[in-house]
Structure formats: structure tokens, C-alpha cells
Amino acid sequence: MSKNRRSHASKIGTALLVLMLFVFASGCGKKKIPPPPPPPRTPAESTATPPPPRSVEKPVIASFTAEPSTIERGQSSTLSWSISGATDMSIDHGIGAVQSRGQRQVFPAATTTYTLTAIGPAGSDTKSATVEVSTAPPPPPPPTGPTLSGGEILQRDAQDAYFDYDKSDIRADARDALTHDATLLKQIFAKEANFIVVIEGHCDERGSAEYNLALGDRRSTAAKEFLVTLGVPADRLKTISYGKERPQCTEANEECWQKNRRAHLSAGQ
Amino acid sequence: MKRPIFLTCIAVAIAAFIWAQQRPADIPGEIKKRGEKPAIAVPDFRGAGDAQRFMNTFNATLFSDLQFSGQLKMVPKTLYPLQIPQQPSDFHPPAAGRSQGIWLTDWSSPPVSANYLAFGYTAVQNNQIVLYGWLYDVAQANATSAQVIGKTYIGSFDETGAKRVAQQFAADILKLFGGVSLMGTKLYFVSDRTGNKEIWSMDYDGSNQKQFTAYRTITNFPAVSADGTRIAFTTYPIRRAANGRGTTEGQPQIFVHSLETGRKLVYYNQEASLSAASDFMPDSRHLLIYSSASGFSQIYISDIDGAGLRALTHSRSLEVEAKVNPKTGSDVVFVSGRGGTPQIYRMSIDGTDVSRLTTGEGDAVNPAWSPDGQHIAFSWTRGYEPGNFNIFIMDVASREVEQLTHGAGRNEHPSWAPDGVHLVFSSKRGRTTQIYTMLADGKGLQQLTTQGNNDNPVWTKTSQ
Hints:
The structure holds two protein chains of two kinds.
Chain A: H1 2-30, H2 45-48, E1 60-67, E2 70-72, E3 77-84, E4 88-91, E5 96-97, E6 101-106, E7 112-120, E8 123-134, H3 150-157, E9 161-162, H4 172-191, E10 197-202, H5 209-229, E11 237-243, H6 254-260, E12 262-267
Parallel strand pairs in A: 2-8, 10-11
Antiparallel strand pairs in A: 1-3, 3-6, 4-5, 4-7, 7-8, 9-12, 10-12
Helix pairs in contact in A: 3-4, 4-5
Chain B: H1 4-22, E1 39-41, E2 46-47, H2 55-68, E3 73-74, H3 105-108, E4 116-125, E5 128-137, H4 143-146, E6 147-156, H5 159-176, E7 185-191, E8 198-203, E9 210-211, E10 219-224, E11 230-235, E12 238-240, E13 247-249, E14 253-258, E15 264-265, E16 275-280, E17 286-291, E18 298-303, E19 310-311, E20 319-324, E21 331-336, E22 343-348, E23 355-356, E24 364-369, E25 375-380, E26 390-395, E27 400-403, E28 410-416, E29 422-428, E30 433-439, E31 446-447, E32 454-463
Parallel strand pairs in B: 1-3, 1-4, 2-4
Antiparallel strand pairs in B: 4-5, 5-6, 7-8, 7-32, 8-9, 10-11, 11-14, 12-13, 14-15, 16-17, 17-18, 18-19, 20-21, 21-22, 22-23, 24-25, 25-26, 26-27, 28-29, 29-30, 30-31
Helix pairs in contact in B: 2-5
């Protein structure tokens, strides 16, 4: 067994020695031969085209922004930009040519991406900015109570038609008042399907109660007939004569009497 | 010439008066109204025992009824002799030129100068008040021929009974002079004293005012049938609103009520924005109305329930207030604007023979026939500004007019009493409108109402 161990050890030692000699020998050889110089660096282009003039630069859009970038419909956003090296600059969406530095207010109705194009002799550049348009929220409810009823609108906006003493002819001023009223009535009828209007006929106190009853009736009928010629549906109009029973004004003078000689519109039920 | 209403009667009246003095017991009732009215002395009556309690009421009623009639000249009580007769046996003819006590000449000679003397007394019998009443023609030579009335009247033993026997005695006296007693006649009128215009009633002297309708809206224009059983008027009926919220006022319509039960009777209103009651026909079974079915108020006649409607006028002007002659039933007066301002026209009941009665001046409205069918009373602004109405009377045959009021207040809605001598009307003489009566010559003005505004009086044609 000891005889085998002794023979292995002598083989490893020999190999090591050979290796060491080889490494030593090669190291001594490099020191003796210097490396060749590198080849001169000569790029192909520089030799193929002449160099460009020193003033000509390629166009650059330094910045193009939209502030704010999110708006509600109807509000505005401001586009700002800064460009260098361009001769021809424009923004699309109808804005057109612009200067190299500037601002522009825009009112897009919907989300829009604006593109700025800058073109120069040395090339071109583009940049985009987007304005997002959000749909506006529904308006808040009216601050006070429900909307006006037809009767309230009549009370507020209807105009009385006035008459001459003992007459039921529609005067020029009554014509204007009733024309105004016809428009109003059509609006009310469009909103309230069952709305009925009562045309009250009134008189001043000077005639007899009986004759005034007939005269007030005639006045309300004349006003109704006129409204119907303006396209107000006759079946929505009722008449009632109050004669001199419900005066608007109770003094005994012409100013007051004129106030009472009238056709007045009120809500029927 | 200015008083055509009485003109024809004057000659008759004078003749009848002379004749009446000769044969007083047989007076047929035609001593007439104007010129010399018979002078009557009415000393206070006294009551035996407990009957005296109600004699103030009795004496006041008797005197005022006779005075109110307008038929008699009332001799002031201050002129009466000290000794007052209470029964026929109190009279003693003078003997040999010397006074033996009370005698006819005490009353016929100055200062009393009466033609007639009413006297008597009351007593309580069987718990009733009994009036022994006499009327003497004091121009007669003896007590027997002087007696015109000698009659017993019985009433309940209270104020009402005392008033009633006084009214009956007064009515008998007035009958002798061609007068119609107004006792028991009523007036219907419009009052706003509750806050709404309603129909009210009262006695002819303004007493006993009572609310008849309670519609709480505007109720107007009463008309009473000749038989006194029905009243028609115009109102804005209150209806429940179609949308269920509250109530609403309908267009003016005719309502008819029973005066016996007070209840509403059926009356069918035609489809029209205005229908108003005007007058009953003398048969009490038909109604004259005005209605705007054609677009212009026109005169119609209908049955008592609204059926059988027929237009009497066909104009494109305003026509209201049709009143039929109560005697003929065939002449209608009405108000029309066909010539411009409202004027009074006449036509036949079939709508033909239309003619204008007033001159065309001012506004002429509110025609009302006298019971004899000869005259109309009406309201006219002739000579005044619009609205300043006065009461006029027209003799329809001659169209002669007489003005009864002269600018005092705004005077409207005359209506004749059944006696043909009195008129009731409304007048705004202060802040409010009130109801007055006067004689048909414009004298004897009396105010009947004071509360609220009172208007539109109509005098019933019969006692109720």
C-alpha cells in the first residue's frame, strides 16, 4: 500500500515543475516585443460630406403645455409654447401660425389634443398638448321652491286690455297687451296640458249694473276673439263678466275708471 | 202739464170729492190723488184697561200708514180740540146755537179744517184686542150721515195684534180714497251687509229686514212673480273646482226660488257666458231674461223652468232689462245700446214694433212699469254727467217725462208700489247706497235701510 502512495506524489510534482517552467518562459518573451500603434481614426462621413455651416440648427420645441389641462365645458385653457430654430410654426385645430414664443387661450367643447409643428431648414419638431374637457354637472335646483305655475306666471306677466267708456272695441294698446298675452298663454299651455284661462270683463262704476254686466261680457268676449285670431286655442279660454262688481280701483275719477274698464286674465280651475 | 200721471184724474177727483161730501157712505173709491187731498184728523185712540199698553204702537201705525199713503192730508195733532170723541154717542149737536159738547163742526172748522175724522178705542175681550173704529165725514149735518166707517177689528193681545188692527183700519180708510193699502206688501232687495251681495226682504216700511239668500257670492237683480210665489235673481254660482282645490265662481246665471218654501226651484240656464233674470210675465209662468249666447246680451223669454227659450231681439248691440206691461202682458220696455248709449225702447212681446222711448240723451236705464201699465219709472243721466242718475217718470203713450229727483245722490232702480202712488228706489247720498221710498211726485222721501249698501229694491205686487 505504501509503495503506491509514493509513486503518485512523484507524478504531481513533475507536472507542477513543467507548468512553472512554461509560465516563466512565456513571461520573459512578452517583455521583449512592443505592441503595434493603433490605426488612425478616420470616420467615413467626415470624409464624404462637407461640414454644415455653423448658424443652422435643427428646430427644437422646448416646451408646449396646456394649463390647466382639464377644464369644464365652456371654460378656457391656455396653451404656452417655446420654440427655437424653426421658421414655420403652427398649431392645428384652427389656431394656425404662431410665433416662436407665445400663449393662446382656447375653449375646446370636447377633449382636444393640440399639435404644435415647428419646421426649420434643418428639420422639424412636433409636440402635443391635450386639454381634457369634462361635461358640466347638471345645474343645481332653483334656489327657492318649485317653478312658477301657469297661474302665477299669468298673475305676474299677463297684461290687462283696456277699453273706452261704454265700448268693447280692442284699442291699439289693448291689441299690444293681448298680443303679449297670447305668447304667454301659448307658453303656459305648452307646459300645462289642462290649463284654462278665464278672461274677466270689468267696467267702471258709471253705467247701470245690468248694462255693465252685458258690457263686461262683451269686453271679455272681444278679448277672447282677438286671442283666438292670434292662435290661442278657443277651448282653453273662458269668459266671465263682473260688470262693475269687482272694481280694481274705487275712486271716482277718470284715471281710476280707466283701470276698471278692462279685460283681465286669471287662472281657471 | 208737467204731471201727466195725475192730470186726467184732477177733474174726476174734484167732482168725486164734491160728490163724496154729499153722499159719503157710498164713496166708490175714486177721490183722487193730487190737487186738494182730503184732510183727515186722527187723534190718538185710547185703550180700556190693559189694552192701553199697546196704544203707542197702535197710534203710531195708524197715523204713519195713513200719512205714508200719500192720499190724505194729515192735520197736525197740535190743532185738535181738547175734547176727543171715542164713540158715536160722544157727539152732541148744538142746541139753540149753543154747544152741548163734542160736535162735527169742532173738526170741520178752523183751525182743524178737516174733511174726515178717524176715532174710536180699543179694549181687551177674550184675551184679544178689539178695535172699535169709526170714520166720520165731518162736513155732514148729523152724526148718522157723517159715519163712513163703523167697524170692529180683532187682533192678538200683543204689539203685533195692535199693529195689525191699526193697519187693517188704515187699509179700510185708504180704500175709500182709491188707495191700495201697502200693508203686507214686501220689498225684496240686494244688501251687502254680510260682506256678500245677497237678496234680503223687508216690510214696506223698512221693518222686519231678513236675509233671503246665503250664496256667499254676488247675487243681484231680484224679480218677483205677480202671484207672489216665486223670486228670480242672478248669481255667480260657487262650484267645487275641477282640480279639487277649493271653489270657483261660475258665470252669472238665473236662479229661481219659491217664496213659499224659500227653496231653489229648477231653472235650466242655456249655454252662455251670461244669463240674467229680468221680469216675470203677468201669468207668473214665464220669465223675461237677457243672455249672451249670441255673443251680445239679448232679450229672451223662457218658461218658468228655463225651457222653451225664445229670443225676442236679434241685434249686435247690448240689450238688457226687459220689463213687461203688467196690464197688457204684450208691451215690453227694455234697455238697448243699439243707438249708442243705453236708452229705453219699447217693443211688442213678439219682438216687433221696436221704438225708442227716451230721447237718446245720456244713459236711460232701469225701466219699471206702474201697476196701471200707463207709466214707467226709470233712471236717466239726462242733464248730468255719466253715472249721475235721477229718477224719472214717463207717460208711455205721450212720452212726456217728469223728473222726480234732482241731483241729490245717484238714484237708481225705481220700482212701483202696488198702490201706484209710491216708488221705492236706491240712492247713494253719502258713502253708502240706501233704499228710499217716495211718492210718485217726488215728495215724502223716507229712508228704509241703513246697514251696509242696499240696492235694487222690488216691491211685491201682492200681500204675503
